[in-house]
Design brief:
Layout: H1 3-13, H2 26-30, E1 74-78, E2 92-96, H3 102-115, H4 125-157, H5 171-179
Parallel strand pairs: 1-2
């Protein structure tokens, strides 16, 4: 018998661990979870017959199946393509971490297919690769459209510089200007001083 099958059989026999008097309190009725009994006269804490069983170490799963995935492989976290080289394909499986981006994730999936390593995180890797490729292409197109819009807005905001127009005088006016004699500078003589009476 495989260890995963043995674990399923044992799990069927384990009871549902629920809090004491959970159906009597509306707050606890929706939250069906375990909490240890702490009352002095609690029959669940004292492990009396006819009451629900508390959580005990004996209800733990078989030692052979502990830490195994449902496929029966030991999961190992992978962050890079280099981490795949340490995995043994027969005994272990790759679990891609949630921190990894789409580009590195695609590289890991392609490398795992070459080395025949099973990825436990991704169910259908071929479909995942197609979807990611399509989404990456759509993102590129959207980015290019945004950049074009920004450039157009910049051009509209930038005011065109006013060019100074040099007014050209016609030839007839130029000839008249050349003919006019230049004015001579007249030197002013100082006025004679008045004689004062002694």
């Amino acid at each position: 018998m495989k260890p995963t099958e043995l674990r399923r059989k044992v799990k069927k026999k384990i009871p549902k661990f629920l809090r004491q008097d959970y159906p009597q309190r509306m707050k606890l009725h929706s939250k069906k979870r375990w909490a240890a009994a702490k009352g002095n006269f609690s029959k669940v804490r004292r492990k009396m017959d006819g009451k629900r069983s508390p959580v005990l170490v004996g209800f733990r799963g078989p030692r052979i199946a502990r830490g195994l995935h449902a496929n029966g492989l030991i999961p190992i976290m992978v962050n890079n393509v280099k981490d795949l080289l340490l995995i043994k394909s027969k005994e272990q499986g790759a679990m891609i971490s949630a921190k990894v981006g789409n580009r590195t994730k695609i590289e890991i999936i392609k490398a795992a297919e070459k080395n025949k390593i099973k990825i436990l995180n991704v169910r259908k890797p071929e479909e995942y690769l197609k979807k990611t490729d399509e989404s990456m292409k759509e993102r590129k197109i959207k980015r290019q459209e945004k950049l074009k819009k920004k450039e157009e807005l910049r051009k509209l905001k930038e005011k065109p510089k006013k060019e100074k127009k040099i007014e050209e005088t016609p030839q007839e006016e130029k000839e008249i200007i050349d003919v006019v004699p230049e004015k001579k500078e007249i030197k002013k003589t100082p006025a004679p001083k008045k004689k004062t009476k002694e």
